[in-house]
Amino acid sequence: MTATATRVRVPGRARLGGVFSGDTPTFVALFALGWLVTTFFQLDWWRAVLFAGSAVPAPALLGLFAALVALGLGSLLGRSFLWAEPAVLTWLDFTGHDRVRLVSGRVWTVWSARLLVLGYVGALLAAAAGVPSWTWWTGIGLLGVGSLVVLPLAAGVGPPLRLPVAVSAGRQRLVDGWAARVVRLVSVTFLDPTMMLPSAGPVPGRPVRSLVALALVGVLGRLRFAVPALLLGVVVALAHVALPGLPDALLVGIGAFAALLPFGGGIGQLWRSPGLRRWLDASDVALRAWHAVVFAVLALAWGLVVLAGTLLLGSPLAGAAWLAIPLAAAAVLRTATRPPVDYDAPGITDTPFGQAPVRLVAQVVRGPDLGAVGVWVLAAAPLGLVTVLVTGALIAWCVLR
């Protein structure tokens, strides 16, 4: 392969994703840009929703932003930007172009996109809270330092258009990344989000001989998501203090669901393979039950992180919010064990947003549906016998059905 200074231009590809094509991408981009701009003209509404009209300590808001920066920029370490279509790679090699320039450009694009998103979120929070100017400069410094720190970890040090991470990525690594990307795109196209659950890595040890060992291996193979899960716990603890307008149950429910969802890939793979489940010679209830036990342990560990964070901040969570953690774990189990998507007679109906396939939409929201109902109950009602019974019923339904 010969490195040239010729700019890589893949034939048949729209520039910038077709944003300037005048077609649907242009409309979506203009609509999104307009909505993002208008949010800064509704600061009173955001202040009422996020802060309940009360003053928020600037250090708490800065701590939340720092945790979001660590979470957002740390995702670069997964190197999801290393992908290329086999046909494009063949064309690049045949014409003598340098594939490294193409991949390096994508690294800078993904890095810049994260900076823009984090900068926008930080600016919106700071503007809505009405923080002093030193807070703005501190937030800008956190974002700048974080971006510079994470880049040599994610990209290496080298010429801007020939980053070492792109040089070291061979053809097989790029094709594997492309295959994973295709699976994600297909899952969105066919409304089957369980296909997006991550695959497991190798787990050394003895052969799996029991259902509890199977559940443990499914979690251990995805330990690479433990650090993001812990960061989500820190984010929830800080958001509890920095965003007093949001219900604690909502923060904990969303945070626990997002943190535990990647670990549902093990049982999700079983439910996508009916033949494998028959080979295990175990009932669906037994498989759900043992995975529920393992998820309960994960939820307990995540809850301890949140508890430690809130205690250090001197602001413990409300009692009802803690019930959102087992509810989120049960919702993850329900999400991963949804039946295969049925495309027969989906039942099209009219909605304010156009026609929608009712059965397919119901299939997509299976899991988060009961979790959302439970979070609403926990946020609207005080902790009591009725709240506990309703939450327990929802958890049992998620585990058994």
TrEMBL record:
The chain crosses the membrane at residues 16-37, 49-73, 107-128, 134-154, 225-243, 249-271, 292-313, 375-400. InterPro entries: DUF6297. It comes from the Bacteria. The keyword GTP-binding does not apply. Keywords: Membrane, Transmembrane, Transmembrane helix. This is ABC transporter permease.
